[in-house]
Amino acid sequence: MQLLRVAWALTGAAICCFLLLLIHSRLLKEGQLAAGTCEIVTLDRDSSQPRRTIARQTARCACKKGQIAGTTRARPACVDAGIVRKKQWCEMVPCLEDEGCDLLVNKSGWTCTQPGGRVKTTTAL
């Protein structure tokens, strides 16, 4: 009798998981992003100049209310809209863990400085 109860419980759990997956797949149709997530759409690199690489990327984000597309840990992410509005770019933690963040003088972007002294500059459009 106990074995039968366990079997029914496992069957019910399996059916429940299957239904949740089915509902989830219907809600998130192909090409849609889950709320609060981003994906890189295009990434172009130009290394034609010596000792300098210019990279441009376009990201697509589905941000929640009060958020806007930004950068966290060198990846596209949804960040608080106030950070972008005030141009306090370093508050969104755009650099990698071992890098230091500094605002550009005109607040048009930020720099990430690596321990070896290499500097990556990012400007916001």
UniProtKB/TrEMBL annotation:
Keyword vocabulary terms for this entry: Membrane, Signal, Transmembrane, Transmembrane helix
GO biological process: G protein-coupled receptor signaling pathway
Keyword Signal: yes
Residues annotated as transmembrane: 6-23
Molecular function GO terms recorded: G protein-coupled receptor binding; receptor ligand activity
Domain of life (superkingdom): Eukaryota
Coiled-coil stretches noted in the UniProt entry, renumbered to this chain: none
Cellular-component GO terms for this entry: extracellular space
Family named by the database record: Belongs to the TAFA family.
PANTHER family: CHEMOKINE-LIKE PROTEIN TAFA-5, CHEMOKINE-LIKE PROTEIN TAFA-5-RELATED
Name of this protein: Chemokine-like protein TAFA-5
